[in-house]
Design brief:
The protein is an alpha+beta fold. Helices cover 42% and strands 27% of the residues. It folds into two domains: 72 residues, Dna Ligase, domain 1; 97 residues. It contains eight helices and seven strands, in the order αβααββαβαβααββα. It starts with a helix and ends with a helix.
Length: 179
């Protein structure tokens, strides 16, 4: 797993991991499959950045098994490099305000300590968007709430999707990203 995370951290497209023979070594194929799935589904960076992992196994060497890995990404190296790291969720709202001020389309934040529920984060992001939109239009939040919805809500995604999240991604301007 650590070798896979190192590959992903450097946004490498491929790499080789060597498993050296030992009496307690698990079946290389089962170990590779388990590690790939765990990294892709259960680690924040894997869940955020990786689309797929493939591998081949070469057992021709006498003292080790070579596992050749290929990584397919759903995030660019630039998106991964632009990720902001913070110790807690409370910094997210200042980071999000700054991102909105600068016209950023998306914000990805890796959080060291997740001290709020996913629902609380989503509610706070929606409230921040409402406050910013009301201020931009010179309306109170109550007046803005009475108007028909003409603005896409900011989309909040958590990685991994289940368990304790480690990365929060907020899409501020979805139409511009897709266009």
């Amino acid at each position: 797993m650590n070798a896979l995370l190192l590959l992903i951290g450097s946004h490498a497209g491929e790499g080789t991991v060597r498993l050296y023979s030992a009496e307690d070594t698990a079946d290389p194929s089962a170990a590779a499959e388990r590690a790939c799935e765990e990294v892709r589904q259960d680690t924040p960076m894997g869940a955020y950045a990786v689309e797929y992992l493939t591998y081949t196994i070469d057992t021709s060497a006498h003292h080790y098994t070579a596992i050749s890995l290929t990584v397919g990404y759903r995030r660019t190296a630039e998106q991964v490099a632009a990720m902001v790291h913070t110790t807690g969720v409370s910094a997210l709202y200042d980071l999000l305000s700054s991102a909105a001020d600068s016209g950023t389309q998306e914000l990805a934040v890796q959080v060291g300590h997740f001290d709020q529920s996913r629902e609380e984060v989503c509610d706070a992001v929606a409230q921040l968007q409402l406050q910013r939109t009301a201020a931009e239009r010179g309306l109170s939040e109550e007046e803005l709430a009475e108007l028909p919805e003409d603005e896409e809500p900011w989309q909040v995604c958590f990685y991994p999707e289940t368990g304790e999240a480690g990365i929060i991604e907020i899409i501020l301007h979805k139409a511009e990203i897709e266009g």
